[in-house]
Design brief:
Elements lengths: L9 E2 L8 H9 L10 E8 L3 E9 L11 H4 L2 E3 L2 E5 L5 E4 L1 H14 L7 H14 L11 E10 L11 E11 L10 E5 L17 H16 L4 E5 L7 E4 L3 E6 L4 E3 L10 H12 L4 E3 L4 H10 L2 E8 L3 E10 L2 E4 L7 H14 L10 E3 L2
Parallel strand pairs: 1-3, 9-10, 9-16, 13-14
Antiparallel strand pairs: 2-3, 2-8, 4-7, 5-6, 5-7, 6-18, 7-8, 10-11, 12-13, 12-15, 15-16, 16-17
Bound molecules: pyridoxal-5'-phosphate.
Pyridoxal-5'-phosphate binds next to helix 6.
Protein name: Branched-chain-amino-acid aminotransferase
Cofactor: pyridoxal 5'-phosphate
Family: Belongs to the class-IV pyridoxal-phosphate-dependent aminotransferase family.
Length: about 375
């Protein structure tokens, strides 16, 4: 069985949902990744049997035997998407089909059982529908969804597991960066790389994040907010941040972002911003950009804005870039006009304030 009908995702309501006054208090100041809703969706996979036992249930512990394969060989992938409150009181997902496709691609790269895209979509719709009271109504806030999958077979031995658990849970989310919309400072790592050709850079797996943490810690020690990675081969081309793609805006109004050559995570925000920028008549290049060019363009003023983007952080202006022996400010260090225009255009579609010309919005209710 590789496809569950809508009726096979059984629903077991939580017997201990968080009392309304406590939930309301959390929703007033959700932060990011600190509060979690009442339910989760789980679906299991066993080789020979396929996907089965899909359910919406009370959010709870996942008991794991010490020999569970994910704990040793790191077959783990995840996604991140949001349910946005709509003006009529409903909720909508933004391009969840793209998350479903990327999740399947990540599974294939990590030799895991690919989850059928319609099952992924059914699961994310089900969690939002069940925990609809957990969607924050504040401007800029949303219900963040975290679908993930782990190898659950209990065995040692390096090979793809024969059993997997898919799970989605939800977390009300406000601003990702505590400072709000002021420009962040990036640290260019000389020593560490994020992804190499042929590696897992274009798969959304926890292992990529584990490998980025020492570099992120270095950035923090250097007084920076985030690390920006260069390519592994020449240590010259700008790739992306630990969990966000990067864009550059030039004096002539054109925009540039590094191309998807296999070592960059294909962000859905990245793709959407390219489309929106072209809709606005802006020239967008998907071309490599070197760190030396970045320094030169920041100094000459040819580079007027830079921003990072992703589902969690939306569009975040980059105010400064630092590395061993250099520091360069970009524009006036705050969100420039192109950054602001693109961010507004994206948020307006996600929040149902602008026409959804590209069919990106999926209503949940
Ligand atoms: C998730 C992620 C992004 C952003 O992707 P979106 O689909 O826009 O949320 C960018 N880079 C990395 C490394 C990521 O893991």
């Amino acid at each position: 069985m590789n496809k569950l009908g809508p009726s096979t995702l059984s629903i077991q309501q939580s017997l201990m949902p968080l009392p309304t006054p406590e939930r309301t208090a959390l929703l007033e100041n959700p932060g990011f990744g600190r509060a979690f809703s009442d339910h989760m969706v789980t679906i299991r996979y066993t080789e020979g049997r396929g996907w089965h036992d899909g359910k919406v249930e009370a959010r709870g512990l996942l008991p794991l035997d010490p020999s569970t394969m994910v704990l040793h060989y790191a077959q783990e992938i995840f996604e991140g998407l949001k349910a946005y409150p709509q003006p009529d009181g409903g909720a909508a997902l933004f391009r969840p089909d793209a998350n479903a496709r990327r999740f399947r691609n990540s599974a294939t790269r990590l030799a895991m059982a690919p989850l059928p895209e319609e099952l992924f979509l059914e699961a994310v719709h089900a969690i939002v529908s069940t925990d609809r009271d957990w969607i924050p109504k504040l401007e800029g806030a949303a219900l963040y969804l975290r679908p993930f999958m782990i190898a659950t077979e209990v065995a040692l031995g390096v090979r793809p597991a024969a059993e997997y658990l898919f799970c989605v849970f939800a977390s009300p989310a406000g601003n990702y960066f505590k400072g709000g919309a002021a420009g962040v400072t990036l640290w260019v790592s000389e020593h560490y790389i994020r992804a190499a050709p042929g590696g897992t850079g274009d798969a959304k797996c926890g292992g990529n994040y584990a490998a980025s943490l020492a570099a992120q810690a270095e950035a923090t020690r250097e007084g920076c907010d985030q690390v920006v990675f260069l390519d592994a081969v020449e240590r010259k081309w700008v790739e992306e941040l630990g969990g966000m793609n990067i864009f550059f805006v030039f004096e002539d109004g054109s925009i540039q972002t590094p191309p998807l050559t296999g070592t960059i995570l294909p962000g859905i925000t990245r793709d959407s911003l390219i489309v929106l920028a072209r809709d606005m008549g802006l020239t967008v290049r998907e071309e490599p950009y070197s760190i030396d060019q970045w320094k030169a363009d920041a100094a000459s003023g040819r580079l007027t804005e830079a921003f990072a983007c992703g589902t969690a952080a939306v569009v975040t202006p980059i105010g400064k870039v630092k590395g061993k022996g250099f520091e360069a400010a970009i524009g006036n260090g705050e969100a420039g006009p192109v950054t602001t225009r693109l961010k507004t255009a994206l948020l307006d579609i996600q929040n149902g304030r602008a026409e959804d010309k590209h069919g990106w919005i999926q209503r949940v209710f």
